[in-house]
Design goal:
This protein has 121 residues and is mainly beta. The chain is built from one helix and nine strands. Strands 1, 2, 4, 5, 8 and 9 form a six-stranded mixed sheet that branches. Strands 3-7-6 form a three-stranded antiparallel sheet. Strand 6 (65-69) and strand 7 form a beta hairpin. The longest helix has 4 residues, at 79-82.
Length: 121
Amino acid sequence: MITGLFKEVSNRADFTDVIEVHDGDTRELIDLTGASIQIEVGRQTRPPWGSGDIVLRASTDDGSIAILDIGVFEFIFPVEKMRALEPGNYDVGATIKRDGRTAQQAIGSLPVVDGIVRTSQ
């Protein structure tokens, strides 16, 4: 499992990233064929990694997460969803379900800044 801090993102832009999933022992990329991946972003509570209200969700089921290659997936939270976030820190968690088992892939903190631009282009 990965824990840490995501780089800050704007609430006036898409939030997207590509993630590699490695075996913890061999460091080989894990085949994600048929896996169900979910990422949730929630309001940060004290202490961090709390159970604040979930404000964003992405999953392979809704198409906002795409498996790109062996061990590689990409997620996107479009600007339309990001605009709903107030500036501040949020908790992020990612799980991967494959072969009937669910694993916590990542837990982290996401700083969101006000992107200032208020009009769509």
